[in-house]
Amino acid sequence: MEFLRPATWAEALAAKAGLPEAVPVQGGTDVMVEINFDVRRPPALLDLTRVGDLADWEVAADGRLRVGAGVTYARLIAELGDRLPGLAQAARTVGSPQIRNRGTVGGNLGAASPAGDSHPPLLATGAEIEVASAARGTRMIPATEFYRGVKRSALAPDELVRAFWAPPATGPQYFAKVGTRNAMVIAVCSFAVALHPGERRAGTGVGSAAPTPRRATAAEEFAAAELDWAGRAPLDPGLAARFGELAAAAAEPIDDVRGTAAYRRHAIAVLARRTLAWAWHDYRKEAAACA
Amino acid sequence: MRVNLTVNGRPEEVDGVWEGESLLYVLRERVGLPGAKNACEQGECGSCTVYLDGLPVCACLVAAGQAEGRQVRTVEGLAGGDRLDPVQEAFVECGAVQCGFCTPGLVVQAHDLIERVGAPSDEEIREALAGNLCRCTGYEKIMDAVRLAAARKAGTA
Ligand SMILES: Cc1cc2nc3c(=O)[nH]c(=O)nc-3n(C[C@H](O)[C@H](O)[C@H](O)COP(=O)(O)OP(=O)(O)OC[C@H]3O[C@@H](n4cnc5c(N)ncnc54)[C@H](O)[C@@H]3O)c2cc1C
Ligand code: FES
Ligand code: FES
């Protein structure tokens, strides 16, 4: 095995192009488990933790946040929790403090597990993934097109994830996850909602309840059409329940050791209903605070 | 390959490291510091917790090569000579150690908590220790130990 240690982004892309089977490693919280257990013996590890600017984030010219693939969950929570509250909530549920000190959204994207906790909030906020290769340069992939199958993504063998781009929150955002414990659990299922009051719509993301993370499009359309965006009336329980049903209908879950398909569908409906209620409550409070 | 790193303030030059090896293996088998324990090798138990550049991490999930040029502090590096660190003292006094396998990881993790948060609430302690498993104590004595260490640091015990 080789251990490749690029010091710059250009070197990293060149190394990946030269040896596409090289496995990138950032926090190692997925990669090292596989190596320790002999599940994977790649010809090379490509350590990205020395590529300095991968661990930086910035406010881009268009106002969106451009967050490097190497920003850890711990830093995301501490530094971006105010602007990316849904993603920060998801980050708080990842593993343990030790895992959050190492694990990254870039690694979550690289692994592309349907249970990855970053994915629902990235979908709900309309994030884009910036990827690059030495041969073809940079391209932007909307989160909705990034996930292609169980642990498969739109990333080509010679590409690396550079960053994700997400707009700072313009309304309340929530993430909720079902698991057997309050820490260290892979999601049985999860749900994210992001209100975009300026556009009078809600974004959604369903996690761990289909071969890929996905949006609940019908639930989004329903929320855009039916919620009282202008008057901010209290959320009608019937509307919230219907939103939950539509979210559950977007799921395509399986039975596995963590839960049955029927349970997951039910739980998605509950999570969607609850997160919408929390978000709507905050949305109404905001108005009261401004009045 | 060769890895150069600083462990508990001492520069170490380690040869013959396999490229897929973990920092935990390097510390235990090559540097001769068996304090950090190997229990699960998958980040689940926290018994391998060490500081890497000042942040507690699972050493089993850090590739050895990633520690090149970095600062590592293990449980062996907490005590000042023969004097135990206050967290270690509190663990002994409170009976927070039974078989002891989980102890080094818990001590490092609790040490970090107390450095960052002066007077942690029970919730904060539980949250900080959520990634450290103990099969013996039932955690109550561990909670006692962390409370005591924090109180001593704050000068209230
Ligand atoms: C104990 C434990 C608990 C966990 N709990 C959770 C949890 O609650 N929720 C959750 O979502 N995940 C969880 N995970 C999984 C893991 O922590 C996350 O997927 C994390 O985001 C991975 O980030 P990393 O930087 O450690 O990735 P790595 O392990 O370094 O990499 C992960 C994958 O991404 C690829 N990769 C890394 N960087 C790039 C890049 N820049 N470009 C292209 N590919 C790249 C790697 O080759 C690899 O395939 C847990 C893991 C452990 C060990
Ligand atoms: S041995 Fe590293 S977490 Fe268990
Ligand atoms: S004392 Fe035995 S595992 Fe904690």
CATH architecture of the largest domain in chain A: 2-Layer Sandwich
What is the CATH class of the largest domain in chain A? Alpha Beta
Order of helices and strands of chain A: EHEHEEEHHHHHEEHEEEEEEHHH
The number of helical runs of chain A is 11
N-end to C-end Cα span of chain A: 63 Å
Please provide the count of β strands of chain B. Answer: 5
Question: Between the first and last Cα atoms of chain B, what is the distance in angstroms?
Answer: 49 Å
Shape of chain A: globular
User: What profile does the largest beta sheet of chain A have?
Assistant: 5 strands, antiparallel
Task: Give me the side-by-side strand order of the main sheet of chain A.
Answer: 4-5-10-6-7
For the largest beta sheet of chain B, what order do the strands appear in spatially?
A: 2-1-5-3-4
Mean pLDDT of chain A: 96
**Rg of chain B (C-alpha, Å):** 15 Å
Number of helices of chain B: 5
How would you describe the shape of chain B?
globular
Number of domains of chain A: 2
**Helix and strand string of chain B, N-terminal first?**
EEHEEEHHHH
Beta fraction of the residues of chain A? 15-25%
Domain FAD-binding PCMH-type (chain A): 1-171
GO molecular function, one term (chain A): oxidoreductase activity
Keywords (chain A): FAD, Flavoprotein, Oxidoreductase
Protein name (chain A): Carbon-monoxide dehydrogenase medium subunit
